[in-house]
Amino acid sequence: MISLxxxxxxxxxxxxxxxxxxxxxxxxxxxxxxxxxxxxxRGLSPxxxxxxxxxxxxxxxxxxxxxxxxxxxxxIDTLLQDLRFxxxxxxxxPGFAVVAILTLAVGIGATSxxxxxxxxxxxxxxxxxxxxxxxxxxxxAPFDSRxxxxxxxxxxxxxxxAPFESITAVEPGSVDCDLTEQNPARxxxxxxxxxxxxxxxIQPILGRNFTRDEDRPNAPRVALLxxxxxxxxxxxxxxxxxxxxxxxxxxxxxxxxxPADFEMPTLARADLLLPLALDESTGRGPDAxxxxxxxxxxxxxxxxxxxxxAMLQPLYQESLNYVPQQFRKEVSLRVRSLRDxxxxxxxxxxxxxxxxxxxxxxxxxxxxxxxxxARATGRQRELAVRAALGASRARxxxxxxxxxxxxGILGGAAGCWIAYMLLxxxxxIAPDGIPRLQQATLDLxxxxxxxxxxxxxxxxxxxxxATRQPEPDLLAGKESxxxxxxxxxxxxxxxxxAVSLVLLAGAGLLLRSLWKLQSVPLGMDTQSLIxxxxxxxxxxxxxxxxxLEFFRExxxxxxxxxxxxxxxxxxxxxxxxxxxxxxxxxxxxPGQPRFSDGTGGMIGYRFVTPDYFSALxxxxxxxxxxxxxxxxxxxxPVILSEALAKRLLPGANPxxxxxxxxxxxxxxxxxxxxxxxxxxxxxxxxxxxFYLPWKPEPEGYFRRGHLLLRTPQxxxxxxxxxxxxxxxxxxxxxxxxxxxxxxxxxLAHRPRFNAILLSIFAAMGVLLAAIGMYGxxxxxxxxxxxEIGVRMALGATPQGILRxxxxxxxxxxxxxxxxxxxxxxxCSRLLESLLFQVHAHxxxxxxxxxxxxxxxxxxxxxxxxxxxxxxxxxxxxxYE
Length: 880
Fold this sequence. Notes:
Helix content: 40-55%
Structural class: alpha+beta
Distance between the termini: 55 Å
Largest sheet: 7 strands, mixed
Low-confidence stretches: 10-15, 474-484
């Protein structure tokens, strides 16, 4: 048994091997010199004395080997020897080494880049201790796509719930807040109750958490700084706790600094964390304005999500007593893990992209396996000689695997550079909404993964040549036909074609879906249209008259700008613009039956100025648009969308009829019907909605306005004028400007991202498959040079030789295509959730992908096959 000290001494001795060997040679030579001198004294001649000394001492090399085994680590010694030999062999064939390393680098680099993205979505722990016990819970209702809770329900449930260690509530999203001290800035403020940090087990790096007394309405304002704001705004001041900042014109005491990896469970940006200040005395009456919150909890040990949902049922049933009877069937309780809430629909796309890039890695490995097999064929005589000299089967396998592992590691090192570039590309083209994409980096975890796949890749493509048994006949100079190895190479090419066809078919489906998505009619004209979003701070514009006056003055100023042909204003903007909404069941038209079976879904509405429809190019199908006189207090017109008019008054002309919604009995006159406009995204049908005039209304929200300016002028120049006019009224008001084409284009960002990535991987797979086909056909042509020469000498024509080579290629290609079609048929079902108006088993797309792949494969095979046509029979018959 070797002690640790002895083992370390032997390990260090490996790095001093040259000096140790020199000392050993000197010592052995000294022994031989002494024996030689002794033999000379006995009367032998110097030559006889040396020979006798060697016979008496024994084998020098055997002595050296025994010494190295006793004073070294044989396994490490052998490994280093194999590595040195592998490096020499790669240096002898630099072309082979470069092609193999670059091929592996492409596969490993792409895989590492995608893994760095999906790792944070699918595998890596969330930045909270014991994150697997964190859940989101609440009620599902038609007006919200995620679970929520009403403030009174949360207050009732908090002391009575049983499945959770603790529960907490946060504000949905984040709210704008302004630093109004020196160098003012608009920030995003998160709001959470006092139990938030303990529930998520987050400890401020400076200061403390909120107290219960601070988490009440009208309590003195306190704030926790995010790490980024603390570093950028306050230069990481360690004495920041206890100081005040001016927030929305009011002082707020800084009580702590959050850790660098802090994030809200809703993934909303939070520069500051403020108390939720939930009013626990809010009533439940029909007119009460109940606050909506997002609720999170930490499960007790041993409690599952299903058990938690069952244990919350009694509290949920009590809350249903405050829900109108006709609405109860549309409400449900939901408990799910925090990861599921954050990942959402990114999970499916992440698995698909990871599977696609692993397919590219598989194609790369099969390509390198073909290269290594071809190279191994030329080294069979060398291996046969090694075996004849006593090398064991395990020793030969270890040597071969060492060479392939070295290739894998070198390919992984080059792949890190490719992964870095691809990751930058992914981040630059990625849409908003992919969780933690901006955090994706080549950190230690990703580098360990890269090392792992490099080693696995080396084993995968090195296994076939390593297990090949050297043929003793090669020592007699006989030629090995290597039929089995040819079949293996052809099988690998078949697999490459199959995988590439699956990737091509998937990319085709996503690209056609993207084309369909971008061709969807929106119901509006977005060309030459600029949208400016303006948000007014509540502390500066607390009342509706102030807000309306700001926008009235801004409209007057912008109307004077040269080249503005239409100017509209709205409190929300399609498409996918958040808008106010009411239930269909709350809408009434005299003489028409009122919807009474549940809520009927949500009906959105907007406050717009008279020129809104002309600015957006929305057609008025019947009646008229708003006029200037509709803004008067005595006028209450409304315009319905076509979809809403059909639901409320099917088959009738709604113009001139009365209309009211919600609980306010304000009767409005329907003055027009507008064409439907896409608001819920490109994939959803046009939602029913209605329009109200931009004027003081109890339901109105005028702190945010969207200006629409139609102009043929340069958008950048007009944007500067808009900003200057806003600043002339109030320089503290932020303005966000984009063209409507850009706004609409964002809706296709995620489908475009998925399509581009899968297309890149498909292109990589096809290119690698083509290179593999070219290499295998070229090798077979070179290997069969003598046979081709004999055939041509016996009368075969060049065209016949070409047909012979291509017919062999056709068998592999057709086999690969058949397997690929089957794989594409099965795998395309995984893409169904990502497709729009495209059938997952579209035969036209499958046929097109097949034609592209066959064309590439034929071209890759035709180039080396042409060389077979030009073989000189006399040269071929003298071959070797």
